[in-house]
Amino acid sequence: MDFLNEKIKKIYFKYLAAAFGSALITAIYSIVDMAMVGQYHGPEGSAALAVVAPIWNIIYSFGLLMGIGGSVLFSIIRGKSEGDQKKSNEYFTASVIGSLILTAIIWLVIVFFDEKLLLIFGAKDNTLVLAKEYVAPIKFAIPCFLFNQMLAAYLRNDKNPALATGAVLTGGIFNIFGDYFFVFTCDMGAYGAGLATAIGSAISFVVMMSHFFQKKNSLHLVRPTHLFKKLKEIFVTGFSTFFIDVAMGILTILFNRQIMKYLGTNALAVYGIIVNISTFVQCCAYSVGQAAQPIISTNFGAGKGKRIRETLKYALGTTAFFSVLWTVLSLAVPNMFIRIFMAPTQEVLQIAPAIFRYYGISFLLLPLNIFSTYYFQALMQPKAAFVVSVSRGLIISGIFIYLLPSIVGADFIWFAMPVTEMIVAVYVIKEMVKYTKQLKNENSSDVDCKCENGLL
């Protein structure tokens, strides 16, 4: 597959299919767990998994930090240097080393401080008990979750997106059937859902590792020069994608605490389902970014602005489709989602439609804002990507989550994200127009001077 000369439409949609399949199954992991545990334990089960959600965000975000950050630099080098494998593999090796360090830290924190974390995330009474049951088997598979994210990014940039998708599909399919078997057939409840997820992740990891035994593999461990400098470059490049997932965890914690303060357990159970739907929408946006990023990064390295603009056209069309689809579903059939994910009480069915419809408006702009961070990273504009991810993920959203219920009323907390996404989208459109216009004057000799942070 030739990123520099082959038809953009063919490459983009091939990568989109692979990235979407991978993102879809990643989302299904948490969605199936929520549905099974919600059906088995009722609203308290859904609330417990809403409490656990930030742990996933933390683990996945560090995998994306090393994977997206390193693979963007990996592809730019190969586009600029006509396949300089040794230099690009230094970034791959640095990503592996960084992932090992981060895995060790996260593993120790979750193994020894799981109860304290869950309490911080909003767990109380029986939701704490169920959350701990779910997390118990996951502790053993934490390295697999992080490395799966990192490896998938490199496999896509090493022109093997199908294997990345196949690996996640294999683990995801096991998780779906394993959830039912362990939760209901073996009567394990929340513990069984966690066990199925842990095994599924290990299966995905084994399948991804098969890439290194294929002839097409060009990823190799080499001795990296200036390791700490490369780790810093990877961190700067990948920070925005990393923070999107971290921010999802932070927002979930803020929402959990505010909902319990103002609205109670039933509202938290509904929000637990919204978190999963929002994760699904976010994964759709990831798939667009992950499909476009290798193409844009390689062509940016080669100075081919026309091909980047063509890729952007297809990416924006795809984000528009996902935006409309998920907004319409959230407004039209909110209680369908409730019945899928739990055995609801009458009170839950009464409050859920309004909550879904208020929050669901945010899905109209969420895919665009998420995709923009991949676009800015691929063009080596980490400052713009940073502003988007931190503004929507913490600063603007956090302000509205705290202020709206206390000033306007408890139910207005659900408008925090729609207002945030609208404000951020104004900045995104402005910056995308600016940087896309600059591409027409670029060539391979001035790519380096366009990099804000002097990387490479």
Radius of gyration: 21 Å
Q: Mind summarizing the main beta sheet?
A: none
What global shape is seen? globular
The low-confidence parts are: 442-454
- Average of pLDDT: 87
Give the total of beta strands: 0
Give a topology summary.
Layout: H1 8-41, H2 43-80, H3 85-120, H4 125-138, H5 142-157, H6 161-185, H7 190-209, H8 227-262, H9 265-302, H10 305-332, H11 334-341, H12 346-360, H13 366-378, H14 382-407, H15 416-438, H16 447-450
Overall description:
This protein is mainly alpha-helical. It has one domain. Helices cover 82% and strands 0% of the residues. It has 16 helices and no strands. The protein has helices spanning 8-41, 43-80, 85-120, 125-138, 142-157, 161-185, 190-209, 227-262, 265-302, 305-332, 334-341, 346-360, 366-378, 382-407, 416-438, 447-450. The protein is globular and about 60 Å long. The two termini are 24 Å apart. Residues 442-454 have low confidence and may be disordered.
